[in-house]
Amino acid sequence: MSNLPKVEIHTDGACSGNPGPGGWAAILRSGNAEKVISGGEKETTNNRMEVTAALEALKQLKKPSQVLFFTDSSYLLNGATSWLAGWKKRDWKRKQGKLQNVDLWKKLDGELVKHKVDWVWVRGHAGDPLNERVDDLARKAIPK
């Protein structure tokens, strides 16, 4: 796997009200190259924006890659690293019932299996320069 292209991804989601209008953003870096993507929805939740940011970032990768993925979302991190396998075994259901955002989790799972992803949790609003930048981009992507 070490011969795979190395990519660093930073994502964030934001919502004005929860639910309410929301935005997401991602910064992808590989070598000296950087790509910034963002988008928004008129009616959504913060969690949907966090998962959308991850999904849209991974969809940018044109070939299998070694990804170092930075997020301040415990929901995204736990979903991708701890809960996903159980949801799949239970036919995309939680032990406690309905799985929220199942449409996005299924798509994210389809992207995750293509890559070697190592996850890094960063504390939000704690001065990490790329986390602060992607947070600002996500907020700016919220539809007015």
Question: How would you describe the overall organization of this protein?
Answer:
The structure is a single chain. This protein has 144 residues and is an alpha/beta fold. The protein has a single domain, classed as 2-Layer Sandwich (Nucleotidyltransferase, domain 5), CATH 3.30.420. The protein is built from 4 helices and 5 strands; from the N terminus they run βββαβααβα. α1 runs parallel beside α3. The longest helix has 16 residues. The model has no long low-confidence stretch (mean pLDDT 95).
Features:
single chain; Nucleotidyltransferase, domain 5; alpha/beta; 4 helices; 144 residues
Short structural description:
This protein is of the alpha/beta class. It has 4 helices and 5 strands, in the order E-E-E-H-E-H-H-E-H.
CATH hierarchy: architecture: 2-Layer Sandwich
Task: Give the total of beta strands.
Answer: 5
| Spatial extent as radius of gyration | 15 Å
What is the tally of helical segments?
4
CATH topology: Nucleotidyltransferase, domain 5
The shape, in one word, is globular
The fraction of residues in strands falls at 25-35%
The biggest sheet, with number of strands, parallel, antiparallel or mixed sense and barrel status, is:
5 strands, mixed
CATH superfamily membership, which one? Ribonuclease H-like superfamily/Ribonuclease H
